[in-house]
Amino acid sequence: MVNLTVEELREIAEKKVKKPRKLLVRSQLYVKNIQRAVERIVTTAKNFKKDLHAGSFAQKRVVKTHDQLVGELKKLEMSLEILLQTLGEEYAVVLADTG
After folding, report:
1. Is the pLDDT of residue 90 over 80?
2. Which of 11, 20, 26, 32 has a 20 to 30 Å separation from 63 between CA atoms?
């Protein structure tokens, strides 16, 4: 990964970037998806905690909630990977343009 100084980042930002609006919209969409995923994870974790404290009556719910929590965490991981990949691709375009 390339480390840039603040001045270098400003210079890049001041130069023309291909489709900056498209990058912004895509990034905002991914960030919203990540925010929703985190909210679902928090809710599921709270339910999991409640089910754990409910004792043996909630054993099936504990397993179901655990599986749901794992699924939500995997979705979050995928969303983060997509965001990082998208930003990396756009960053490569910026570096090529400023080259």
Report:
1. no
2. 32
